[in-house]
Design brief:
By secondary structure, the protein is of the alpha/beta class.
């Protein structure tokens, strides 16, 4: 699946180059906010439609109105809101929840940037967002001919975006929310908490309300750990701090178990290139933490080795792996 930052870059290029984009993903992952944000970042005038409630004639095609032309002849003109004529970017949300008559009305706009043969003078591109076609969603399959009018088709990964949460809630609070989701929740719990639900948890906490009210299930989510992260946020180390001083922290994790545990929690959510940069810290972790990492997150060592190989050479990667095995007394196969 395509990541948040990759989609942001692709959408920005598409909007500039006049390419139509269809973005598919589960509910609550930030598809709408992302697309609206692209228009804001580029300074483009956006026209937003919730396609599930769109009226094809009132909102798009226009209503027939009698008109006398300059020659005194009686004609019919289609009157529609002027904002569609001013739009540089049109966004159809909930695209596969629309009625067939709505989708028929947008065919021409998506392909030719026109309505009833009349060009929309400022329209650069059409974006649309939809949920997956599955039993979980009350959606309809889209016409292949309609799908063919989109230059780009993307699937959005459902995980939250760290930078978005920091921008929304601030450095400390936003980081605490994201780190709780990424490091403290099990995979099945993460699947329950979409980015939208995580945002709602943050909103309730801001208002002094119980975040448990966000999700009406019996799942035992570790909210106590979230409260602890928020309370102690100013003293909690972040990934960027470990990246800034890998040698210093390599020494510190040998005698400070709290720092070692914090690093071990962050390591699985680091980018492979960052895993490579902090490999000395990983090697300095207490044996029991490395053993736990190998058991719960076996991909960490592999990704680190792969990143070292890309950044340096195969010999460096093999040396790292040998040191890990020696430390944990794992016999090389």
């Amino acid at each position: 699946m395509t990541t948040h930052s990759q989609i942001l870059e692709i959408l920005s290029v598409a909007a500039k180059k006049g390419l139509n984009v269809l973005l598919q993903g589960p509910h609550g992952v930030g598809k709408t906010a992302l697309m609206i944000g692209v228009a804001d970042n580029l300074g483009l005038k956006l026209k937003y439609y919730s396609t599930s409630t769109l009226d094809p004639f009132t909102d798009l095609v226009g209503l027939p109105v009698p008109h006398n032309n300059t020659h005194g002849e009686h004609t019919i003109r289609f009157h529609r809101p002027d904002d569609i004529n001013q739009a540089e970017l049109v966004f159809f949300d909930e695209f596969n929840r629309a009625q067939p008559k709505v989708l028929n009305a947008v065919f021409e706009m998506i392909q030719f940037k026109s309505i009833n043969g009349e060009p929309l003078p400022k329209l650069k591109a059409v974006f649309a967002a939809c949920n997956p076609a599955s039993e979980e969603y009350n959606v309809t399959d889209l016409d292949p001919a309609l799908l063919d009018r989109f230059h780009i088709h993307m699937t959005f990964a459902p995980g939250p975006d760290r930078e978005w949460f920091i921008n929304r809630f601030g450095q400390n609070f936003g980081s605490a929310l994201y780190d709780w989701w990424a490091a403290d929740l099990k995979k099945e719990q993460q699947n329950l908490i979409s980015p939208r639900k995580l945002e709602h948890i943050g909103i309730l906490l801001e208002q002094g309300l119980d975040p448990k009210q966000v999700i009406n299930t019996l799942h035992n989510l570790p909210f106590s750990q979230l409260h602890a992260r928020i309370k102690d946020r100013n003293g909690v180390l972040d990934i960027k701090e470990f990246l800034a001083d890998p040698k210093g922290f390599a020494a510190k994790v040998e005698y400070d178990m709290n720092v070692a545990i914090r690093f071990a929690h962050l390591l699985p959510i680091m980018k492979p290139a960052d895993m490579c940069k902090v490999r000395d810290i990983t090697l300095s972790l207490p044996t029991e933490l490395i053993t736990t990492l190998q058991k719960d997150c076996p991909f960490v060592i592999k990704r680190t080795c792969d990143a070292i190989k890309r950044a340096y050479n195969e010999g460096e990667a093999e040396a790292f792996r040998e040191l890990i095995m020696e430390k944990t007394r794992v016999v090389k196969a």
